[in-house]
Amino acid sequence: MKDEKPSSTSPSPSPSPSPAVRSESEDGVGLLSPKSVSRSSSRERWSTEKVEAIKEACRAGNRKAVVELATSKDGLISDEIRKEAWPFLLGYRTIPHEKSMSPTDIAEARPSWKTLPPHRDEDQVKLDVDRSFIYYPTNLSPRELKTRKTELLDLIVEVLRRHPMLCYFQGFHDICQVLLLVLGPIHALAAVEHISLLRIRDFMLPTMSPTSDHLQLLYPLLYSIDPNLFHHISRTQPFFALAAILTLYAHEIQEYNNIARLFDIFLAMGPVFPLYLFAEIVLQRRDELFEIPDDEPDILHSILSKLPKPLDLDDLISRAASLLEQQPPESLSTWHKVSSRSVLKTSRNPDKSPPSLSYAEKLFNQQWRELERARKRKAIFKAIIKKGRITLLGLTLLVGISAIGLEFYLQKNGTCIDSILESNVSPLLRRLLAGVGINTGNLIFP
Fold it and tell me: Where is the segment annotated Disordered (predicted)?
């Protein structure tokens, strides 16, 4: 029987009004106020005004304003404005007139990556790049496609060689593909470095444990909003969200405009936001999920692992932002298990100045050592348990064989067990004798 939807489910905010007219922000930057489109003479004028507001906010260093604009309908509008806004949201600049430019945007600032030692994962990178650009762009000639793949391969390999501690994962190329298409091969390098070390660093560690910590936040989040839905799907592990979370949905979304729109909000918000977006997707599929029996976890997993189509991204983003405000990750029961060096915590507030890439590398190494210590402790514990079991098994066999030999001897000589067992035989011995079929009779043991 389908469960009734509780009133505690994430509130359904009214549709996001579309900004149309300007107002002054606290920082004096002209912003687009959330007014209806009808108050603007045309959608083209509205888009033009929004683009100008985004540019002004970026140049004024008003990140809060850019985040609000990225969250509102249609996000950052176009790739042209994303070229300026995405680097700003990631914490570095590419605007030529800026006085302080990131060294990662100046090719001459570092030696050629081609002179650096090869990364251990380059063979896998080549295999994945060969399978890239499947869904977009759709108008490439074979020659252009080959050029794009070469650019993508060089981009990924350069980042891995410059930061050799990073571990490549399948799907990383999907993220890099989006950044390459929007920013171009020159500026995509800095973006991939920043997103790798400051946003998805947990996914590029040598083990899946930190990734699992991300996924383990999903069920407490769902429980806080809809306990009945949580119980209905809880027989399956939350790994159905792995592909979407791991690749920032780039492996799951097949439409270029949609994945670019999602990256607007992912770069504007913290690393936890993709999980909140997935939670909203699950909540919106409530009726569909309750049609599947809760004792069919495999079917539930299969359904949950595929994103529904079509997705109303603006609505999902608005709801996920409200959910994040309503139930911040600090309120979730599994938050304390997340490492203090995880990007979930070190980049929890993206409005603060992001750490440098070198500091992010230090966090990476610290977290890796933390994982290694945990792995060694676990291995030692397993060894102790295994050794303890072997010792107990040997003792049990020894006592058992001795008991069988004793029984055989007594039967051969016609001696009753009652006549030789003293009244203070321990309960442990009695249980061992009973375990091999020797009845100790009515003897009473203390």
Answer: 1-50
